[in-house]
Write a structure and sequence with these properties.
single chain; 366 residues; mainly alpha; 64% helix; RxLR effector protein; signal
């Protein structure tokens, strides 16, 4: 065989062998595929796991470029937490503890709650309870309650705030916390003089109602334990009744107070509330409104006549007439107008003449 033919045959055989070889050996293929895995990821327990990287220069550079494109939050939430411990770990990794204001509106918070919900899959109530529990541990029950109360006023956060409020209450129920303990956790006992204006009071009331307790009776007992007299309590309730946000609770506490007055006359309560001090601003006092409500409940359709009789015992006819006339622009103007009508009827029944009425009103001295 000539040298040329031998050379040609050798080239053909060598070419066939080269084409039969795989382009990348199996071990090299495995190394190449591992290069697109992020350098770090969270496992199910929230721990950081380091992945092996290929040592090849080209794929190592590709890894760095890929990592740079992954948002930080996505890296941290690569695993969905499914326990309270994992929820807390993710909370810390997202550095949500640094958020002091508008927490519920931050992207990190929204990502955190979304990831937690995925971790708990179909049990959304458990997810919300885990979120609320974490927030309570980090900030305190009072801060969480204040946060949700304020967030419910905003359209962008009202839904999540309502869920968190419900979850906080469910956590207390699950732990069977006494009403007094929750009262303290919300720090409602720190400013008892303004308790009726505290917006967190509604959260406590809702919790106690869910335990089938009577929050209004308990609240009145707590107020009396502070040595508040009935006149002071009534002043607090009267002020709260002027605010639509606190009025419903104030009215129900007032009804409990009325029950505690059972057996006392309208005159007894008038003196109990210290309304018999002959002040010139009687009809501008919020507690007079409470007394009017009590007398109305006690006397029904004869309430106005009973109230006038009691007032007449503290003021003479002239003073009372001037008091009623001057009250038409005050808080209790409608009540004053009704009592003025009662006075006129009584004067007619007593056959007061124009002359005696003139003298009664002391118009002859002016």
């Amino acid at each position: 065989m000539s040298l040329g033919r031998v050379t040609l045959v050798a080239i053909v055989i060598l070419s066939t062998l080269v084409n039969a070889l795989p382009a990348v050996m199996p071990s090299e293929r495995d190394s190449a595929s591992s290069s697109i895995t992020p350098q770090r990821a969270l496992d199910l327990n929230g721990q950081t796991t380091r992945h092996l990287r290929a040592r090849r220069q080209t794929t190592d550079g590709e890894d760095r470029a890929f990592d740079a494109k992954i948002p930080l939050i996505s890296k941290l939430t690569s695993k969905n937490p499914s326990s309270e411990e994992e929820v807390l770990q993710l909370f810390n990794k997202l550095k949500l503890f640094n958020q002091k204001t508008n927490l519920l509106e931050t992207p990190q918070f929204q990502k955190w709650t979304t990831t937690v919900s995925k971790g708990y899959k179909t049990n959304s109530e458990a997810a919300d309870m885990a979120i609320a529990s974490t927030l309570s541990m980090q900030h305190g029950d009072d801060v969480l309650a204040k946060m949700t109360t304020e967030a419910k006023q905003l359209s962008s956060t009202k839904d999540v705030a309502a869920r968190l409020e419900e979850a906080q209450i469910n956590n207390w129920l699950a732990r069977k916390q006494p009403a007094g303990q929750v009262f303290g956790a919300l720090k409602l006992d720190e400013e008892m003089h303004s308790i009726m204006r505290n917006l967190l009071l509604s959260t406590w009331v809702t919790y106690v109602e869910r335990t089938e307790g009577n929050p209004y009776k308990l609240l009145l007992e707590k107020m009396k334990a502070q040595k508040f007299g009935d006149d002071t309590i009534v002043t607090m309730l009267g002020s709260a009744k002027q605010n639509p946000a606190t009025s419903p609770i104030a009215e129900k506490v007032e009804n409990v107070l009325f029950d505690s007055w059972k057996g006392q006359s309208a005159d007894d309560v008038f003196k109990l509330l210290k309304l018999d001090g002959r002040g010139t601003h009687l009809f501008n006092q919020p507690k007079l409104n409470t007394w009017v409500s009590y007398v109305t409940k006690l006397e029904g359709k004869h309430a106005d006549e009973e109230m006038y009789k009691i007032l007449r015992a503290s003021y003479d006819d002239g003073e009372l007439a001037l008091l009623l006339a001057g009250a038409k622009n005050q808080l209790m103007s409608k009540v004053a107008a009704r009592l003025e009508g009662v006075q006129q009827k009584i004067w007619l029944s007593e056959r007061k003449t124009a002359k005696t009425s003139f003298t009664t009103l002391k118009l002859n001295t002016k």
